[in-house]
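Lay summary. Proteins are chains of building blocks that fold into shapes, and those shapes determine what they do. In this project we predict the shape from the chain. Here is one chain we studied, written as its sequence of building blocks.
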Amino acid sequence: DRSPVQIAVSTGGSSPVLARLLRARLESAIPSAYGRLAAMVEQFRDQVKARFTNVNARRKFWEEVLQGKIAELVFSGKDGEAEKALSRAVEEGVERCCLTNWASRRKRFKNMRSALIAGDNTFKATSCMLRVSTAR
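And here is the predicted shape, written in a compact code that computers can read:
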């Protein structure tokens, strides 16, 4: 159950079987932790809206939260730690949150780049659940 996250797939009636197959692929590709992450984010929406009155700052804050350490904590089952970290991020502001996550992302990118240069054709980035491949 990924509630409150919902994704709809439709072929407009042209191929219900294709729609069912696509739904099954999406179900297997999207971890159930996204539902827990969405529920946690919902609890902080009002606080974040009050803290960041500028829409662009709020958007940047949520992008950093949903792609950084806080999301990783939820994906690894550490929801309590994630809530504490999100609470601190709201208090500290977007600048502090973004700098921390930027450094972390930069390090992951360097590791991925090094692995690819060294000839490792696959690199698994667990933080965003993606698999990057250079094999053709």
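What the prediction tells us: Residues 123-136 have pLDDT under 50 and may be disordered.
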